[in-house]
Amino acid sequence: MKTSKLIKAFVFLFSALPLSQAFAVGELTCTASADISFSPGLRLFTQQTDINFDVNYSGCTSLTGSTITGGSRSGSFTGARSCLALPANGSATVEIYWDNGQTSVVDATTQSTDAAGQTVHILTGPIISGPFTGLTYSEELVQASLDLLSCLAAPGVESQTGIGVVTIL
After folding, report:
1. Which end of the chain is more exposed for a tag (fewer CB within 10 A), N or C?
2. Could you read off the pLDDT of 109-131 as tens digits, one per residue?
3. Stated pTM of the model
């Protein structure tokens, strides 16, 4: 059931993007999948939570000759979170580890919105070093809305998944 909702949200995401971005053929286009964990689990009230994430890229294609077919990024941070609030918008330096052993560094901004009952996370910015330096990195992830019933009692929502797309233009 949740996979079906994610697929519908993914379709919604592409329909909401400008046509030029939804069908962009840039230096690289990949499928993204994310696993996020929360400790302690998210509840209805705001609390400091350790957040760990792993985002994997697969099926990367390029019409300009890049041989990269996958990659990943991961990390952790602590922040004030709850089931009822979107993650705060912000900025960060993000390292993307490609399957050819190289690393791209992105000067990224993040934004989260609710759309069609799903949460859409957008991470975008210029690539400042490594492969694709000078191009723009864009990652859009769609996550199913949190199960509010799980938010009512401990342990709360301890994990979440997402799907999306990465483009480098």
Report:
1. N
2. 999 888 777 889 999 999 999 99
3. 0.81
Alpha-carbon gap, residue 86 to 46, rounded angstroms: 11
CA–chain centroid gap for 43, Å, is 22
Cα angle for residues 20, 122, 144 (degrees, 5° grid):
110
Residue 156 structure tokens: 């709360």
| Residue 154 CB contacts under 8 Å (≥ 6 apart), including other chains | 40, 41, 43
Helix (H, G, I), strand (E, B) or coil at 15: helix
Site of tokens 């689990």: 41
Separation of alpha carbons 55 and 164, rounded Å? 10
Q: Tens digits of per-residue pLDDT, 17-70?
A: 443 344 445 699 999 999 999 999 999 999 999 999 999 999 999 988 899 999
